[in-house]
Amino acid sequence: MVYFDTNQKTVRSWTKRQDEKAIKMSKVEHLAKNRAIPTDRIVEALELLISPGDRVVLEGNNQKQASFLSASLAEVDPGKVNQLHMIMSSISRPEHLDIFERGVAEKIDFSYAGPQSLRVAQMIEDGMLKMGEIHTYLELYGRLFVDLIPNVVLVAADKADINGNLYTGPNTEETPTIIEAAAFKDGIVIVQVNELVEELPRVDIPGSWVDFIVEAQKPYQLEALFTRDPKHITELQILMGMMAIRGIYEKHNVQSLNHGIGFNTAAIELLLPTYGEQLGLKGKICKNWVLNPHPTLIPAIESGWVESIHCFGGEVGMEQYVAARPDVFFTGRDGSLRSNRTLSQVAGQYATDMFIGSSLQIDQFGNSSAVTSGRLSGFGGAPNMGHDPRGRRHSTPAWLDLVTSDDQLARGRKLVVQMVETHQAGNVPVFVESLDAISVARTAGLSTTPVMIYGDDVTHVVTEEGIAYLYKAQSLEERRHALAAIAGVTPIGMKHDTKRTEKLRQDGLVALPEDLGIRRTDAKRTLLAAKSVEDLVEWSGGLYNPPDKFRSCY
Amino acid sequence: MVYFDTNQKTVRSWTKRQDEKAIKMSKVEHLAKNRAIPTDRIVEALELLISPGDRVVLEGNNQKQASFLSASLAEVDPGKVNQLHMIMSSISRPEHLDIFERGVAEKIDFSYAGPQSLRVAQMIEDGMLKMGEIHTYLELYGRLFVDLIPNVVLVAADKADINGNLYTGPNTEETPTIIEAAAFKDGIVIVQVNELVEELPRVDIPGSWVDFIVEAQKPYQLEALFTRDPKHITELQILMGMMAIRGIYEKHNVQSLNHGIGFNTAAIELLLPTYGEQLGLKGKICKNWVLNPHPTLIPAIESGWVESIHCFGGEVGMEQYVAARPDVFFTGRDGSLRSNRTLSQVAGQYATDMFIGSSLQIDQFGNSSAVTSGRLSGFGGAPNMGHDPRGRRHSTPAWLDLVTSDDQLARGRKLVVQMVETHQAGNVPVFVESLDAISVARTAGLSTTPVMIYGDDVTHVVTEEGIAYLYKAQSLEERRHALAAIAGVTPIGMKHDTKRTEKLRQDGLVALPEDLGIRRTDAKRTLLAAKSVEDLVEWSGGLYNPPDKFRSCY
């Protein structure tokens, strides 16, 4: 309430959030014992703790999901809880959208909507979902402390003790960051846990940051998103992997790096102990990694290639292996992985030589997007790691190797590599005149086109045809020609000019396999350090324990 | 030890770091009771816990210093502890360099060396200090998880309990990030605390992350770095402040922002409740802030301008005021501020419309540096917040307002504003042909020139002459002309072409005070909402408690 004192100076309450929280807390006193809400009364509790219009963070990234809490939120009475402004790293589960259909929630800010991207686009068109903005993970976390400060956060942990201390185990991920935004701004922190225990293996988040604990009906959902079965790696991917190792990793002396998800980078991981070893590169490149515990990295780790790995999150089945390799992974006193998506994104942005990833569409200037017709899939972490961080000031050999000017103020550059086959499955061309994202932006009423990685941030593009060294291009036109030279029989590639390509090869803007000393016929599956999930298990000495869906493959 | 088993497969230890830590821990068993090292035996303990060549993080940023631990490190026997690779946010105290002179440490990676910048440059020239790299804070933190993983960290907290749980109070700053890098990679975490207590007001860092606690002889050093006495704000600074509010904040609709340290931005803070109010801007701009608790922001907060503030660290004397304004500041259950330098840097980079700061030198293209002849001062957080974060994907009105193209893939831009008088004290020109940093880089053997903010990241420059809207410049030449138009009688300004300046004013690339409807004669100290530290105390209702050195001024 605002009122005026006798001097006409405004007098106001400075504890509005505290007061509102106190009222909410008193409403659930009869429900909660200490901090614990009984499992079967969570819907009732949510109805008392969440007010109409509240900003609510619901945890769910591409791996861990607060699935019990999201299912419960979908059951609240829209007459009591409505018009919520949801903030979610990932829209992954059906109920994440059901809450909008039911009128509980109204607006969304998010990062990634892979599995639900079609429905998201449709619901926006139907006016059932009010779009906030699409973010890369790190900017979404930043906004939790600036203009998207939450009223309530719904998150997931493995275990809690009676004092509310939390154990997140290998999947710490973004839980501490989300909780911090609410706990220190008089928001309400509700945590679903797999179990309540007497004593925790270690404390990942202090109990004084937590308001309520609820034991979930079943453990939170966890996706094995970073597992690629080597069985499905093709010889084309092996060829591209060899080119990348020779023409990028070795050429620029890449020491620290991030690999995106996918068969292309899985191929590279499995070529290091074979092809990389033949080239004498062990101990010289690829030493410090920022990535999830990819099972396909096991052979490289076992062969002594890898000095360290910092992880965004965990990976199903890798728990025991990681715990047995503490010199490589970040682990806690209990032995298990400590991941941290926020810090890993900071490291991936600022402290690595290279980001390498894939995309669904690339235009003639190298702009790329994973948003294709009718799908609003978002970005995840790619934009954060896939750009040249202009705040970076330290140099490394790879970073300096990309200096193209002798200006006294010239600076190095981060390697941002796109690795794609010229066509997707079904013979759909990856290289296109214009991104679908442009029309998606129009339909969804976005202020800007959802580009995942901008062409002027991309330094290299690798296809089965060759490598385009885009960082050397002096003009947009030259960039276009270099891309066309490796774009195969796509709308862009068909425009390429043979003479021009020759010149670009001479100038080092384009390299074909033969320019790198690679014979296409050498790209065989026999080069893979592991050819199946079974091989990975063997490399791990039985420590890797693949989920059933991958087991069924061998 | 590496050996081969019968199948010629390499067998190696994967617990080298764990084993080394266990050995070190056993060596101090006789010294430490539980986790507590007696105050008078810390030097002995450091000699046993730190091995030659170790990577050691010593906490010390521009505010909080682990001063007891740094003084103790300077006392260890260089025969026992030597060749250390130090990692420090800030080189602030004399003993930070004494350890190099004494042969305890050899190499340094850092962010900022304000008070010691002259000595740093000299010691590098004399070969007494081996330079690593200069960083912005966030990239240094990132490297702690990639290629600068520490063996030992020496940090500071307010209080600890017997289980090692830590209370950092208002100055959480970067302590959790530093500790995380060591605690989860089998490094050793040593914390100096002001006192050991039975029960903590709140837990900022869990005890299971901490190895040793030592009660310091006296509380850690804490600098009142963000306090500017309004008494010293000049009318020129007020003029510049009015121009910034009118020609940048209002024009672009700036909602979220960071202010650097300095009298220029302090002037703006004190003009919001007067000049800003006259313009009817309250509730329309400057709502969400990322900055330390600047005392000069008190009048704007009290007048209802400020919705939220997230802080890098605390500020001496602001403790009670902050605790009484929880709707604005992030605070814990104990009532006191929760700062977090890492998260605040993320927010300042990605989630704000604008960064505004100052510099000592700006060249003809807008490149700026705080490194001047003979001084290797480093960067702090400026490069991180003073650049266009190309990973950003969400839009805000201010960000969109800087779009200058109608390309379908055009994106917005962060406002990066430099606000400088054309001359420093002693009539030294700020605008120069070439940055001193170029020769400093040569002398110190740096791989790149230590530029603080690059010209192509700067969107606006404000001087007492006017504003240059550099983001509108279509070429380097146009950028140079726009800068010259507002550079006064400096080497750059004297080259300006009057006709050209007229054209730039018409095209909106340059604005003089009259173009913004500001009369120079209106820029009076009477416009400041507070004219002294005493006024600030009054605005705060007696809650602000300035340090003695500022009290002595009134």
Automatic annotation (TrEMBL), chains A, B:
Domain of life: Bacteria
Pfam families: Mal_decarbox_Al
InterPro entries assigned: MadA, NagB/RpiA_transferase-like
Full protein name: Malonate decarboxylase subunit alpha
